[in-house]
Amino acid sequence: MRTRATTRAGQYAALLAYLAFLSFPFLWLLSTAFKTPRELARLHPTWIPEHPTLANFRQAFDEQPLLRSALNSLLVALAAALIAVCLATPMAYVLARRRTRLARAASGWVVVSQAFPFVLVIIPLFLVLRNLRLIDSQAGLVMVYVVWALPFALWLLTGYVRAVPVELEEAAAVDGAGRLRTLVSVTAPLLAPGIAATALFAFVTAWNEFFFALVLLKTPEKQTLPVVLTRFIGAEGVADLGPLAAAAVLATLPSLVFFAVVQRRIAGGMLAGAVKS
Asked: Is the pTM of this model over 0.70?
């Protein structure tokens, strides 16, 4: 019993240390956002602001159109997440249920495509979008985000589909349901945790993405929040640290809220008890 208690205490200590490691950047960013310029200029910074102030938030909103750029990011990220999920779900179903050479080759290509860096694909993407007249267009940016998120979404959802018992689909086929009806009415509800995780991945990826948005969007009114955040850095590379931290805190909140909304779907095991042995 003593050994088990010691092991449990060690596990909790390791978990707390890991949580502290993960939360440190955000807590430090939050602390910086409320510090005065004098505190930010200190050689030995403090953990907790001595004189908390909202001046950095007011300055950030006064200097840059944060609300407009946040709305642009929100629309682009939601559209990319929705389209990626709608495309990846039936494709993952086919890859999981069709054990052919073509399906295995497609699955391998999905994994290999994740190794391509951004710089390698930006020129072909730019040329394609230019021919489609989608440069400096949020629709074109959504298309790029969907293409970029789709391989990982396929890989993730394929595993979830394979975890769904085939007996459920066979029972639906006996009742006269076709493939599409089976996918919509039987398989898709059981894939809710996987769909939620895929939507979260696609949303966070699109919300935080900077490189494609910087290259493809030129009109200031269409630019997303990560691009606007770079305006707090001067021409000589000196950052306006207080307003930048305040704007970065605001940019982090939507991802946290979105995760809080879908985390129950991700953590919930909806397949438990679906088939009796």
From this structure: yes
